[in-house]
Design a protein that fits this description.
The chain is an all-alpha fold and 234 residues long. Helix content is 55%, strand content 0%. The termini are far apart.
């Protein structure tokens, strides 16, 4: 049998005298595999490369790409002023709708405007044959419980929509769309008008990247009854 001190150089005579032989050997055996398992620099680089390819590392990339809030820099101050006159005027212009949609993305509430746009497209269906697949897609995406982009609606509105899914009408989502519209008008729209991006457009400056805002909670229409939002633009 070879001398254990030759196999494990870190053992010294003093250590073997102070500790029982079995304990010293177990300690040394544990240390050796640990050292051998440490990844080298090349392995670390490979792991980092794979990690950076994961989708979650690019979730916020859309904020800096052309066509997002920075695209609104081509909007004139005169056009931006009109957006502050009413929520209808903001949504009626493509540039305004685009800027507001990107703003909602920074607040993680873009499902509201996406639902409103889907309802607008749904009402433009040319035949009853088109209504069923569109209605089903809207219901599964925005209405049903635990939908991937579920909007905040009361139980009765959701139930009425659910019961009409067998034979949907052009008016099936009207009540829900009106509710979501009011929520955006009374909650998100005033914040958009006070945002740095919108104020920059009024002054003819390129829109800066808006910071991501965490959603605190979902609002309901009752939260805003009797409250007139302050739409003053500074």
């Amino acid at each position: 049998m070879e001398n254990p001190l030759l196999l494990f150089p870190q053992l010294n005579i003093s250590a073997s005298k102070d500790k029982p032989y079995n304990k010293v050997m177990k300690s040394a055996i544990k240390e050796e595999p640990h050292k051998a398992s440490k990844p080298g620099a090349k392995q670390k680089r490979n792991r980092l490369s794979l990690l950076l390819q994961k989708p979650e590392f690019h979730e916020s990339d859309h904020l800096g790409k052309p066509g997002n809030l920075t695209k609104a820099a081509s909007v004139s101050p005169e056009e931006a002023v009109k957006w502050g006159e009413s929520f209808d005027k903001l949504l009626s212009e493509k540039a305004g709708l685009d800027a507001f949609t990107k703003f909602l993305k920074t607040e993680f509430s873009e499902e509201n405007i996406e639902f409103w746009i889907a309802c607008e497209d749904y009402k433009k269906s040319k035949s009853a044959h088109e209504l069923l697949p569109k209605a089903k897609a809207i219901f599964e995406t925005f209405i049903q419980k635990d939908a991937p982009k579920e909007v905040n609606l009361d139980f009765h509105t959701k139930e009425a929509i659910s019961q009409s899914m067998g034979q949907p009408l052009r008016s099936t989502f009207d009540a829900a769309q009106s509710t979501v519209y009011r929520l955006m008008e009374q909650d998100s729209y005033p914040r958009f008008l006070c945002s740095a991006a919108y104020r920059g457009l009024l002054q003819g400056r390129p829109a800066a990247r808006a910071p991501l805002r965490r959603r605190s909670r979902s609002f309901t229409v009752s939260d805003f009854k009797g409250v007139r939002p302050d739409l003053t633009v500074w």
